[in-house]
């Protein structure tokens, strides 16, 4: 293939990849911003809840046991969980935005490489950055959806707890109603699909066993390492094939 044609192809791939990375970066920034908004709202809601309980207890108008009923207690737990998840969503963002200093000095400005090789090398780097950003997007999208669902459920349980204060005894199937609401909202928000994509893209079980092997290798011998690595590669290939079969139309630019 002529060098001019290779350069044109590499430039086209790089330009398209640049647009994709910009969109991915914007999506990650949007998720981070929304996560921080939920974090602030949860902190305000927690302050209002603590102040309201304190005032009610000091006024002696309602027994403490009635205020701190199982519904309000579980609502506090969910609110705390949602606050932690929103902070994790914001702080766990990891994205690739372009070339670094080493790419500039060792590749682009290195006169040992011909120009078409530099263009093709950059295009390949963009491909890896897109894949890395996609994994970050999948992880953050799941974290944000879980954060939102947890916060919504916390508000629902606070509402049910407020009703419990005045009614004294709600029927046992109230929890079933709240849980049914959770399932409906989770389905509408796309939580099942996001969970499946996260599992396929991040392979949590492989990462856990890899971490476990690293630790056990420190206290054992290295004679079994080649066999373990080969088995891990087979498992990774199998999981990747299964995920591709389940999601044939997934796009990595999301």
What does this structure look like?
The chain has 254 residues and is mainly alpha-helical. The chain has 9 helices and no strands. It has helices spanning 3-59, 64-67, 70-91, 101-108, 115-167, 174-189, 191-202, 204-219, 225-246. Helix 1 (3-59) runs antiparallel to helix 3 (70-91) and helix 5 (115-167) runs antiparallel to helix 6. The longest helix has 57 residues, at 3-59. The protein is elongated. The two termini are 32 Å apart. Residues 222-228 have low confidence and may be disordered.
Helices and strands in order, then pairings?
Blueprint lengths: L2 H57 L4 H4 L2 H22 L9 H8 L6 H53 L6 H16 L1 H12 L1 H16 L5 H22 L8
Helix pairs in contact: 1-3, 1-5, 3-5, 5-6, 5-7
- Mean pLDDT comes to 79
Instruction: State Rg.
Output: 25 Å
The main sheet comes to:
none
Order of helices and strands: HHHHHHHHH
Beta-strand percentage range = under 5%
pLDDT < 50 runs, ≥5 residues: 222-228
Distance between the termini: 32 Å
**Count of distinct strands:** 0
The chain-level structural class is: mainly alpha
What is the count of DSSP helices, taking H or I runs of 4+ residues?
9
Helix content: over 70%
**Shape verdict:** elongated
């Amino acid at each position: 293939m002529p060098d001019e044609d290779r350069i044109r192809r590499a430039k086209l791939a790089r330009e398209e990849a640049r647009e994709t990375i910009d969109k991915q970066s914007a999506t990650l920034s949007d998720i981070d911003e929304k996560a921080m908004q939920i974090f602030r709202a949860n902190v305000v809601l927690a302050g209002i809840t603590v102040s309201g309980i304190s005032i009610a207890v000091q006024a002696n108008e309602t027994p403490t046991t009635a205020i701190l009923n199982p519904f309000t207690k579980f609502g506090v737990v969910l609110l705390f969980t949602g606050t932690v998840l929103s902070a994790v969503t914001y702080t766990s963002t990891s994205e690739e935005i372009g070339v670094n200093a080493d790419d500039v000095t060792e590749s682009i400005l290195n006169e040992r490489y011909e120009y078409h090789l530099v263009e093709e090398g950059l295009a390949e780097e963009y491909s890896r950055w897109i894949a890395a950003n996609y994994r970050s997007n999948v992880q953050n999208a799941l974290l944000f959806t879980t954060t939102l669902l947890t916060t919504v459920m916390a508000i629902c349980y606070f509402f049910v707890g407020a009703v419990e204060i005045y009614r004294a005894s709600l029927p046992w199937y109230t929890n079933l109603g709240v849980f049914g609401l959770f399932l409906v909202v989770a389905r509408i928000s796309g939580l099942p699909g996001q969970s499946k994509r996260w599992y396929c893209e991040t392979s949590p079980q492989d990462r856990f066993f890899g971490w476990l092997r690293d630790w056990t290798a420190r206290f054992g011998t290295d004679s079994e390492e080649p066999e373990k690595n080969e088995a891990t590669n087979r498992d990774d290939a199998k999981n990747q094939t299964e995920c591709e079969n389940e999601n044939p139309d997934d796009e990595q630019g999301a």
